[in-house]
Amino acid sequence: MGKKPPENKTDAELRRKALEKLNPYTIPVENLSEAEVRKLAHELQIHQIELEMQAEELRKSQTLLEESRQKYLNLYDLAPVGYFTLDEKGFIHEVNFAGAFMLGAERHSLINKPLSKYIVREDADLFYLHRKRVSETGNKETCELRMLKGDQPFHAQLESRAIPDSKNNINQYLIIITDISARIEAQIKLKEINETLEYQIKVRTKELLQSKKLESMGIMTTGVAHGFNNILAIIDGKIQMLMRENKGREKLLEELRLIRSSVKDGAEIVRRMNKFTKVKEDRDWFVAIDLCEEIKSTIDSTHPGWKECAEREGIAYTINLDGVKHVSCIMGNPLELREVLINIIKNAFDAMPGGGTLSFSTREENGSVVLEISDTGIGMDEETQTKIFDPFFTTKERGTGLGMSIVYGTVKRHGGKIAAQSQKERGSTLILSFPAAKESPGITKSDHEPGKVTPEKRGLRNGILIVDDEATIGKVLSSFLTGEGYNVVFIDNGAGALDLLKKDEFDLVLCDLGMPDISGWDIMNVIAAMAKKPKIGIITGFLNASDDFPGNKIKADFVINKPFELDNLLHSINDSLRD
Ligand SMILES: Nc1ncnc2c1ncn2[C@@H]1O[C@H](COP(=O)(O)OP(=O)(O)O)[C@@H](O)[C@H]1O
Ligand SMILES: [Mg+2]
């Protein structure tokens, strides 16, 4: 096997060194026998092969080493976290690609720069304390702070530990930096969502408590209103009869008129109580209403009064309609909605005795029309805000405490919501929302007019059946109508009335609605099935004037609210029997 010539300078150098080392031990080949030379050559050949094999192994492990070094570098550079090696002064000694990318800088430009340069100024102390802890404890320490990518801050988590050298001296630190902005943002969002939810639950609970409280107050008020109506009706009926009997006795009549006017005041309170407690809206009467128009016309019709009053007292009020934007119509009873606006406006003026600004704004939100009415008045404390819609709650010397309860009842019946917001001494805002209507304005849903019915043509026989569980009212009515020339039968219960209707023929049934066992509604339904139907007049302390009763097969010819004017009643009776 021939010796290959040295391949390059390094090989030649190696060969020279080898020859030098070989010299002292040179085997005296010339003294060897041929057999020994052959053996030696054989040995040398084997040795050469062994060396070549070793060299091959060495090359292989060098390739492997190179590969794993590359792998390590890839892992290091392209790790999803930034690796920073800092010297003991906090200057960057080494950084991987990911780390440089995080800081938005070229890798080489970061070397020998202090890492603190990339910490948000306000968090510099956090970083200082973190490094101090690492150098003191020698343990792995973590902290969260804000760093800078260019001039954009981001949330980072730092995980640092000291790297001891061979003599166990610590002069380098490894910091692993993770961008945790997404996590922090998610946490912030979650917190916001939680807060919104908590707030909504609070508001909802408050609304629920409010509506529960008002519901039970409604039940109570209905009872009181009904009872009072009956009492007032009796007193009023008696007074009217006394007045008729004592014509010409002016002094007595004057006294009686005074009592009557108090009875009327009482009746007005009862009417307003009923407005609050009335649960069902007669949706047949609903029309499409343009709230903006309604606001403007309410202000136009009521403004002159306030203006004159304010000018007289030298007080300045401003009405701000800048926020009134065009919105969809809502379905409602225009008269009732006007009453809502007037009640709120009245309260606002009451709250601004020294003048101020009353502002209106409208907007649409998730299928609802929202109306806000704000004043710059005295505002309300917490307690007033929670009681504002309670019937009879007032903080005013001459207040009735019924305005806002009527507003509440009306808004509810219109399928809407109402809330009050206020700050003491700063003013109050009433926020109302109603479902937006699909219909365009001006289309009346109802095709009949209130109070007008089409009676059948019937002969006049003057037979009137009075049905009322309040015997006193029945008696008052009986004597009055008898006095007016009618043939009157009075019965104080529904069952008896049905018996009488079977036996006798009446021209008119004058009926109370709310009676135990058989109610006025039941009697109406029996009449509906009769071949010869008497006229029906309803006298009630229950409902507001309406001739349409839920689930009823027949309409009343007229409805009179208790307490009633005997003259009005007579008028209605005469009218209905004339047809
Ligand atoms: N705009 C407002 N500013 C301050 N307080 C108000 C306002 N609206 C209503 N209130 C409070 O709510 C109470 C109830 O109002 P309301 O039912 O209209 O009855 P009244 O006006 O007869 O007192 C008022 O007495 C007042 O304390
Ligand atoms: Mg009021």
Account of the protein in words:
With 579 residues, this protein is an alpha/beta fold. It has 5 domains: 9-77; 79-179, PAS domain (Beta-Lactamase); 185-277; 287-435, Heat Shock Protein 90 (2-Layer Sandwich); 463-578, Rossmann fold. Helix content is 48%, strand content 20%. The protein has helices at 9-22, 34-78, 97-102, 107-110, 124-137, 181-245, 250-277, 291-313, 334-351, 382-387, 403-413, 471-483, 494-503, 520-528, 566-578, and strands at 82-87, 92-95, 141-149, 152-164, 170-179, 287-289, 317-323, 330-332, 356-365, 368-375, 417-423, 427-435, 463-467, 487-491, 508-512, 535-540, 558-561. The strands form 4 sheets. It has a 5-stranded antiparallel beta sheet with strand order 2-1-5-4-3, sandwiched between helices. Strand 4 and strand 5 (170-179) form a beta hairpin. Residues 439-461 have low confidence and may be disordered. Keywords: ATP-binding, Coiled coil, Kinase, Nucleotide-binding, Phosphoprotein, Transferase, Two-component regulatory system. One of its GO terms (molecular function) is ATP binding. The modification 4-aspartylphosphate is found at residue 512. InterPro entries: CheY-like_superfamily (IPR011006), HATPase_C_sf (IPR036890), HATPase_dom (IPR003594), His_kinase_dom (IPR005467), HisK_dim/P_dom (IPR003661), HisK_dim/P_sf (IPR036097), PAS (IPR000014), PAS-like_dom_sf (IPR035965). This is histidine kinase.
